[in-house]
Amino acid sequence: MIILRSLFYILIFPGALFTACFGLFLTGVDRKVVARMQHRIGPPLRQPMYDFFKLLGKETIIPHAANKIAFLGAPIIGFVSLALIMLFIPVGGLTAFSGNADMIVILYLITIPGVALIVGGSSSGSPYAGIGISREMVTMMAYELPFVLVLLAVARKAGGSELAFSMEKVAEWQAANGNMLFQWSMIPAAIAMLLVVPAEVGTQPFDVAEAETEICEGPLIEYSGSALGMFKLNTAMKMFVMSGLFVSLFLGGIRTGFAVCDVIVFILLCIVVTIICMSTTHAVTARLKIEHLFKFYWTFVAGMALCSLILVWCGL
Amino acid sequence: MFNKLINDSASKSPWLYHINSGSCNGCDIELVACLTPRYDAERFGFKLAGTPRHADIVVVSGPVTSQSKERLIRTLAQVPEPKCVVSLGSCPKSGNVFKGSYSVEAPLDDYCHVDVSVAGCTPKPEAIMEGLYKAALILKEKREAMHK
Questions:
Q1: Looking at this predicted complex, what is its ipTM?
Q2: Angle formed by the axes of helices A187-201 and A127-159, to 10°?
C-alpha cells in the first residue's frame, strides 16, 4: 500500500505527469499573456502541448562529434530531477515526502537541470554550444548566491531561534502567523526571489545562455526531435517548479479546509507569480549581456536578500 | 491514439528556419513582418527557430548565388524529417531580374524538392502567410506517410 501510494506520488500527482502537464499549460499562459501585452492574439493555450508532441514525432539526429550516451541521457536526467523536486514542495496541504532538510534537497536538485543542459550541450560538440554552456555556468553562479540567502532568511524566520529547513514547517508557520510575503522584513527577500525565478527558468531578460538570435539557442543547437522535446518540457516544468517554490515559501499555508480547494489556490497563485515575474519582464525588457547579468545578481539581488537576512537575524 | 496526437500536432506547431541565399533583403523583411503584431503568425504556432535542427519549414529567399549554393544544400540536409521547403519570392523560383548572371544558379528546385512557392517581388505578408499555412498542412501529410 505504501509502495503504491509512493508510486502514485512519484508518477502521477505532484510528480512527473502533473508537473509536466501543468508546466506545459503554464508555458501556454505565459506565451498568451506576452502576446496580449504586445497587442497580438497569440497562440492557443495548448500550443506548448502541440510543440512537444510534434517534436516527439520528428527525426532525432545525433551528430558525428557527439557522445551518444551523454547527448541522449542529459534531458532525461533533467526531467527526473524536476519531477523529484515537486515531491518536496507542498502542493496545497499535501507534501508527498517531507523531512527535516527539504530546502537543502531542493537546492541541490534544482541545479541538476542546469547541469544536464551543460552536459548535453558540451557532448554535442558544437562551438555555439560551447559559448552557451559557459554562459549557463555563469548564470548559475549568479543566481545561486541570492537563492541561498533567500532560503536562509526564510528558514530563520520560520524557525525562530534555530533554522527550519523543512518546507512543512515553513507552511505551518505561515498558517499560524500569516504569509511570509506580508512580513515587512521579508519583502526584500521576496523581491530577490522574484528575480531569481526568471533566471533559473531562463526567460527573456536572463536567457543569455539560450539566446536564439545570437548563438542559435546555445546548448540546444544540435538537439532535434524527441531529445529537444524533452528539453522544452524541462523548461516548462522548471517554470512550474520555481513558481511553486515561490508560492510555498512566501504565500504558503493558505488553508480553506478542503484539500481540493487548497490545490486550486496553489495553482492560481502559481499562475499569478508566473505572470508577474516571467511574462511581464519578458514583454518589457530586452536580453542582458552576461557580465551585466552577473553584476546585477551579485549586487542588487544578493544585496536585497542579504538585507532581509540581516533584518531576520536581528529578530525583526 | 498517441500517433494520432502526434500527427495532429505536426501541422499545428511549424517552426520556421530562414535561409537567405543572396536575397536583396526585401522578402526577408516581409517574412519578419508576418510575425509582427499586425499579422501575428504565432497564432498558428509559427515560430522562428535559431538553428536548422529545430526547423520544420525551411524558407529560402534569394536567387541562389554560386557562393551560397553549397551552404544552402548543406543546411537543408541538416533539417530533420518531416520537413518542408518554401521558396519565398520570385528569385528562387526563376532568378527574377538576376536571371542569366554568371553568379546566379536559380531555380531552387534544381537542388531540392520545393513544396510551396510564394511568387512576387516581394510577396505580400498575406500571401506568405497562406503559403506557410499550406506548407504546414503538407507537413502533416508527410508525417502521416512516414508512420502509416
A1: 0.88
A2: 150
Contacts of A224 in chain B (CB under 8 A): 53-54, 80
Residue in B101, B23, B113, B120 with CA at minimum distance from that of residue B64: B23
B-facing residues of A in 208-237 (CB < 8 A) are 212-213, 216-217, 220-225, 228
Cβ–Cβ below 8 Å for B80 and A49: no
- For residue range B72-83, list pLDDT tens digits in order: 999 998 899 888
Dihedral Cα A250, A256, A261, A262, nearest 10 deg: 30
Q: Which amino acid is at B50?
A: G
Give the residue extent of every domain in chain A: 2-313
Over residues A10-50, the pLDDT tens digits come to: 777 787 888 889 899 999 999 999 999 988 888 988 899 99
Q: For A59-106, what is each residue's pLDDT tens digit?
A: 888 888 888 888 888 999 999 999 888 888 888 767 777 777 888 888
Class of domain B2-146: alpha beta
CA angle at B23 for the pair B20 and B29, rounded to the nearest 5°: 80
Residue found by looking up cell 512519484 in the block: A10
